[in-house]
Write a structure and sequence with these properties.
CATH architecture of the largest domain: 3-Layer(aba) Sandwich
Number of domains: 2
CATH superfamily of the largest domain: Type I PLP-dependent aspartate aminotransferase-like (Major domain)
Shape: globular
Distance between the termini: 33 Å
Strand order of the largest sheet: 2-10-9-6-5-3-4
Bound molecules: ligand T4K
Structural class: alpha/beta
CATH topology of the largest domain: Aspartate Aminotransferase, domain 2
Strand content: 5-15%
Number of helices: 13
Order of helices and strands: HEHHEHEHEHEHEEEEEHHEEHEHHEH
Largest sheet: 7 strands, mixed
CATH class of the largest domain: Alpha Beta
Radius of gyration: 22 Å
Number of strands: 14
Length: 393
Amino acid sequence: MPSEELSSERAINPASEVGGRIFPVPLHVGRPNIGNREAFLAYVGQILDNQWLTNNGPMVQRLEERIAKQLGVKHCVAMCNGTIALEIAIRALGLSGEVIVPSWTFVATAHALYWQGITPVFADIDPATHNLDPEAVRRMITPRTSGIIGVHLWGRAAPVDALQSIASEHGLKLMFDAAHAFGSSFKGQSIGSFGACEVFSFHATKAFNTMEGGAVTTNDDELAEAMRLMRNFGFRGYDNVVHPGTNGKMIEMCAAMGLANLDSFDAIVESNRNNHSAYHEALAGIPGISLLSFDPSERNSHHYIVLEVDAGCLVGRDAIIDALHKENVLARKYFWPGCHRMQPYRDLFPHAGLVLPHTCELAERVVVLPNGTTLKHGAIETIAAICRSLVSI
Ligand code: T4K
């Protein structure tokens, strides 16, 4: 029996479960999607035959070309992970002083700035979309502000047009953290070519993964060239260092995983979409619990199943997480407690919460549930039944 398949007789009434856990094997959020296994192994064979393992090898170049084509953008610069990709993009864009970001994101968005001596300034979000609120961004602009990093959280496009207007009005650079947004669109156009550049994460836990990896996409030739130099110590050809740089290179093995997973991406999205609908149906009518909805007119990988627990729920978010964990459903409170309450930002901005009311409120209400190609529909119904049992005492 597949590890995540559950025995149906135990799944019927989770509230009455006494001995053992409903799911004998943990259900993780972020379980990697493994695409076309045979294709991956064939690519690995080629890598070994080529005796070319890293440093802008043929697999990386193929992956970059395919991604750029798929996203309709001029350049894709592959990197070793999304965080280094953010750091390199931030540096290549020349950001400095203060940069406005949401606090409601994975901490890498803020750390990529702070790590380079730039102050992340946190702006509040729109609670309906979980993305930056443009008016809140305006309020955080100071003479030291050099840029804005919008995050397409959960793969849902940030308010691209409004952020672009603010950036243009104030002479600021605009880039996007698109770590969650591979396969998403804004006004029908693939995420990847908005702002000065967009940064993807291809970490194992993402809808599209290269094990570890990331990329920056841009239509700006000069920016792309600068980032290519920066990811390889600033080398232009043998023995010729023309720029300060670091080691941000993607290795061939990761690119091979990417090529194999690209072949399977449509099937992965389809499976996610089905799971998302099954969650919707199974959770319907539970008082005080709702799923974050996505704009049906835009593309999304439906990778994140984001549950919101509101005041009308009989139990709090943490009680739901506890109950799920007891049954081996390892739900997460992403991105609790918000970057502004993590170090060093907590010490730097002890009163940031005063201007982040929606972030603070949402951080106490969100649960992210397991998804992915290995999740069975029966599991989704049982997860919903666990939630339902908590509020129907
Ligand atoms: N910007 C945003 C908005 C991001 O969300 C991220 C990363 C970044 C930037 C930076 O990109 P990268 O530098 O990471 O490429 C995980 C991921 O490590 C991280 O990539 C991701 N966001 C973040 C949202 O989630 P953790 O600390 O939650 O990881 P961890 O070890 O708890 O694993 C998550 C879950 O996945 C667990 O339930 C276990 C499961 N898992 C994980 C791996 C690696 C597996 O089942 N198999 C695996 O191989 O950060």
